[in-house]
Design brief:
Elements (H helix, E strand, L loop, with lengths): L24 H5 L11 H10 L7 E2 L2 E2 L9 H4 L2 H9 L12 E5 L4 E9 L3 E5 L8 E5 L3 E6 L15 H13 L10
Antiparallel strand pairs: 1-2, 3-4, 3-7, 4-5, 5-6
Helix pairs in contact: 2-5
Length: 185
């Protein structure tokens, strides 16, 4: 079943124009003090791709499957909450998206999401950008499986963006991919 999941070609995604900023929540919030209006839908969608968000997250049914659908994130969370999730992805991890640290009996280990496990085999997705790429291990070779406190989402995914690009990305997230949303007026 997982082999049928369409993956996103990371090499085909655009890049932000920059210049790059090592964003923190407090730095980012400086650009969201007033009402967010007049942003570019097209550039917001482009930044969703440029930040590699699209590789793991969906909006309007388009994107990856390893992370949550972000179509309604703007209705449930504040800009600050969204920025914190982006800048500090390991601060809060939903149980649905927790990765595992797998220790093998030979002392080696793996990190990723357990896709399935039975008496014979355990399959681990070690590439968060492609859950169809699995590492299969005989279950008898596993010593221990522990939940990880580190998110599968790498930090710094927006660090290539300049302030305008970050604002357009946030507008796109808040709109849920709706080009008629008030943030684009």
């Amino acid at each position: 079943m997982l082999g049928d999941i369409e993956t996103v070609d990371l090499s085909a995604l655009p890049n932000p124009e920059g210049p790059a900023v090592a964003w923190t929540v407090s730095q980012g919030m400086q650009y969201f003090k007033g009402e967010l209006r007049g942003r570019s839908f097209e550039n917001g969608k482009k930044m969703f791709a440029a930040g590699r968000c699209v590789a793991c997250h969906r909006i309007q049914g388009s994107g990856g499957y390893s992370g949550p659908d972000l179509g309604s994130v703007g209705k449930r969370y504040s800009i600050e909450d969204i920025l914190k999730s982006i800048c500090e992805p390991s601060a809060t991890i939903s149980d649905q998206y927790t990765a595992s640290e797998v220790t093998l009996k030979d002392g080696s280990g793996l990190y990723g999401r357990i896709i399935f496990k039975n008496d014979q085999e355990t399959a681990i997705a070690t590439n968060p950008f492609n859950f169809g790429q699995l590492t299969n291990i005989p279950t008898e070779n596993i010593k221990e499986i522990q939940p990880s406190s580190t998110s599968l989402m790498p930090p710094g995914m927006i660090n290539g963006m300049n302030p305008e690009e970050l604002q357009d990305l946030m507008a796109y997230l808040l709109s849920g991919g709706n080009r008629r949303h008030v943030v684009f007026k």
